[in-house]
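Review box. Two proteins, two foldings.
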Amino acid sequence: MTELHLWLRHEVRTTERRTPVVPDDARRLVEAGVELTVEDSPQRVFPAREYEAVGARIVPAGSWTSAPSKTVVLGLKELPDQPEQLSHRHIFFGHAYKQQPGAAALLRRFAAGGGALLDLEYLVDDEGRRLAAFGFWAGYLGAALAVLQHRGRLTAPLRPTGKAELDETLRPAAGDEEFAALVVGALGRSGRGAQAAFATAGAEPTRWDLAETGELDRTALLAHDVMVNCVLATTPVPPFVREQDLDDPARRLRTLSDVTCDVGSPLNVLPVYDRTTEWTDPVRRLRKEPPLDLIAIDNLPSLLPRESSVDFSADLTPRLMDFGAGGPWGRCLDRFRLASRELDVTEEEFGRG
């Protein structure tokens, strides 16, 4: 491993309680020679004192902006709007390579400061498989919230909890009616998580993956009561649900949970909504008659912050201990450079137009 100063930043999103590295794995990093700085964070599920106890240095929230230039800043979700110039290497989920809202602005900030984005979504092995992901827990919670909404037991605002407590609310109760559930993208991490939640809820979902979505039967799709989408498209595909499907009088579908939340991207397979839902208001009614409710929360695993963080950290820590210019991290950097070049070309063409 090359010499590494890793800086675990505070998350600015108030509902983000996860961490990419938990204290037990922070100990492993420190023992391996990593210099670890951890920002204090009032919402992180693991308090700063647990990191300090394993050898990390604790600093105020947001102080990464003045970190030494070779520091690698580690987080999960979006950066604050300032500074305008990003000079460090940043590891987080940037959502910046598929024309998502705000993507170009983020890439310009890196260009202005000379920094780089090492996007966790693109930390992959030689065959393109992701090496660290929250997918299982995203799928689990996407299905869990859909079940609770469909049964009339989902309350707002949402609050972080533990799996045992969540499962108690999921288990079928007297008077609960059976329902037809569909998991699209059933073979991936998120799909497996969704299936596990449905099993806890006493439901056996229909499972669709590439074979079924390649020749989509929308009539069959709309014949389910609950659908959980776990497909993150990387190439253009026909949408799974369209505006005209919402107005189909034969539609049985009542609850739609979009785990992927690729809203705003041209690759979005559910282009029937234009903004995500929030912890304070997790459900949006897309149609009154027949009713159709949408759940589209883009940080679902933070509702189970301890369990999801422990699993993610176990995957990520070995990669951090092997941090360097080649391998998976080199592929991350190559993907960032490609996106930056594409942005330059696009803006030059726009300027000429």
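Next protein.
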Amino acid sequence: MLSVHHKGQNIYNLAKKIFPYCRSITGGGVRCTFADLKEYIETGTNAQLHIHEIPSGTPVFDWTVPKEWRIQEAYIEDEAGNRIVDMQENNLHVMGYSTHVDRWVDLDELKEYIYTERNQPNVIPYVTSYYKERYGFCMSECQKDTLAHGKYHMYIDSELFDGVLNYAEAVIPGEMEQEIFFSTYICHPSMANNECSGPALAAELIRFVASMERRKYTYRFIFIPETIGSISYMSTEDHLAHMKATMLAGFNLSCVGDDRAYSIVETRYADTLADRVLKNVLRYHVDDYTTYSFLERGSDERQYNAPGIDLPVVCYCRSKFGEYPEYHTSADDMTLVSPEGFQGSYEVMTQVIQTLEANEKYQMMVLGEPQLGKRGLYPTVSQKGSYDGIAAMVDFIAYADGKHDLIEISERIGVSVNQLIPIIRRLKEAELLRVV
């Protein structure tokens, strides 16, 4: 089992801080979130989070960057002035990207603009309409059933205008131009696991990478609105060409804060280094995990693996999106995530980073089995059981032929990369091992 340390608490605290903002694919809620992430990432590190913007109307592959959405207020009130729903109490009460409305209607017409989740009558659903102008409100089915006949005031103070789509990026250089890529999204309002968890974990991972004494690879982290953000990012500033030329492995972070499960959504053919390294780490560092094929995709791994894009990006989750009942509802609140859940994700992803940094093809520099005893690497008294303590070293040596990388050897001999790293260091110090 993974242990609990303070990093999980730090990530939880950051997720809690950004939870209240009314985010969407554009707008002020996104920029407020970026401001908090930037402050957290840059305090005490040399990492920098840069905020970028793409104008509304910009063609991006087969899409167009939409107008920016600004919302100030949204509520329904009855004839006595009682507010039935109010986005100030829960920002899920307003349909995302709702247009302006200021109308009095009767109950039957009001219900045409109310969205509920009938199979979960006690929750407020998350509903959006980005690419067709409309307005609406969300409430629980139970609340809808209590509405009395009469007149109701629908009021939404919002506007769609030519503005910008924002994304944020942090690049931490290494010794090589080859990159390890992380992507997460900032486009949902107040939901904890399916919104705040990914950016909060990514921010802590940036701090981890920035603190590494030696980095072989360059690390790129992006924070984007889901779907339109990944499409916009790859479509502008020659990002796609750069990604194709440099990306070694990529990870989409989604729903990473609960403590129920561990999950991977594979790349299209499940044959990339990203697939291999995440599965290897999950195999050795958690009790159990679930593998989902690309046919069960749902987040930005869709865009990164699309034909013609073909980037090696898997999706990492605790409970996968769409697989837990609180998903896309008001029940996805801060009680669903925990410091322990975040700690588990932090340890998995930092181990992924360390495994990639260590992953090489290694070759022994002597013919036959080396005499380990004269180098202090093997017991000098031979009896039953004396071999057990160095079995991992001897098995590693047997497969260090320069043809297979460290992850392959780990899978073959049943020993985690984390356990093999100190063995490699000792063999290098004894001048028995080299990198091919």
